[in-house]
TrEMBL record:
Keywords noted in UniProt: Lectin, Repeat
Descriptive protein name: EVA1C protein
Lineage per the UniProt record: Eukaryota, Metazoa, Chordata, Craniata, Vertebrata
Pfam family, one: SUEL_Lectin
CDD domains: Gal_Rha_Lectin_EVA1_EVA1C_rpt1, Gal_Rha_Lectin_EVA1_EVA1C_rpt2
InterPro entries: Lectin_gal-bd_dom, Lectin_gal-bd_sf
Presence of keyword Repeat: yes
Gene behind this protein: Eva1c_2
Gene Ontology MF terms: carbohydrate binding
């Protein structure tokens, strides 16, 4: 169980050079959740994905190290989002127009493994959040946010008292929820600055949003 959870909570990073296969894979009962993606080149080839051109040709052309495409994230979402695994050959044709012909490029992708069945619970500031699972099952925390997100929370309407609508989140919310609830059948915690600290300007209403699986 502990090994499974550490895999689920982990942020995965994978990369592949032009002409190589990229392969993403998640554990049983989880699916791929793409976080971010990059295709192009921002470091010289001696640091990552050496040039495949003959050395004499490589010295003739100036390598572009400020080269990227804007379609990389959408392509990764199309190919891999919500699947258990995915694999494809990396080349510029996948992403539309070649952003820098003559320069060898690479794909970088960051992803998490999301449980297939998960629950989401929200508590407004100073309310108690209670999580529980059925008999013989335990809580596996997937993510936790305490603060204010850009879109706010429908459960906790924002009363604008002249405060700027700014995003602010506790950096320790996930660790605290794991410590308090992970591996237990039930747990409770107050969505308060006493527990999580105050990541926002004074007076900004916050909420706690936890995603978990049993």
């Amino acid at each position: 169980f502990a090994g499974y959870i550490s895999q689920v909570l982990k942020n995965y990073t994978d990369h592949a050079c032009d002409g190589e296969y990229v392969s993403l894979r998640c554990p049983h009962r989880t699916t791929i959740s793409i976080q971010s993606s990059f295709y192009g080149r921002i470091v010289p080839s001696h640091q990552l994905c050496p040039s495949r051109y003959p050395h004499s040709y490589a010295t003739l052309i100036k390598e572009d190290v400020a080269c990227s495409v804007g379609t990389s994230l959408q392509k990764m979402l199309d190919e891999c989002q919500d699947r258990r695994s995915c694999q494809f050959l990396v080349n510029s044709r996948l992403f539309g127009m070649d952003p820098c012909p003559g320069t060898g490029k690479y794909l970088l992708v960051w992803y998490k493994c999301r449980p297939n069945e998960y629950k989401s619970k929200v508590a407004c500031e100073d309310d108690k959040l209670r999580l529980s699972c059925k008999k013989s099952m335990v809580i596996a925390i997937y993510s936790a946010i305490f603060g204010r997100t850009q879109g706010g929370s429908l459960e906790c309407p924002y009363q604008n008292l002249g405060m700027p609508m700014i995003e602010c989140q506790s950096a320790t919310a996930l660790q605290l929820m794991i410590k308090r609830c992970h591996g237990k059948r039930s747990c409770s915690i107050y969505a308060s600055t006493y527990e999580f600290g105050d990541p926002c300007y004074p007076g900004i209403q916050k909420h706690l949003n936890v995603i978990y699986a049993c």
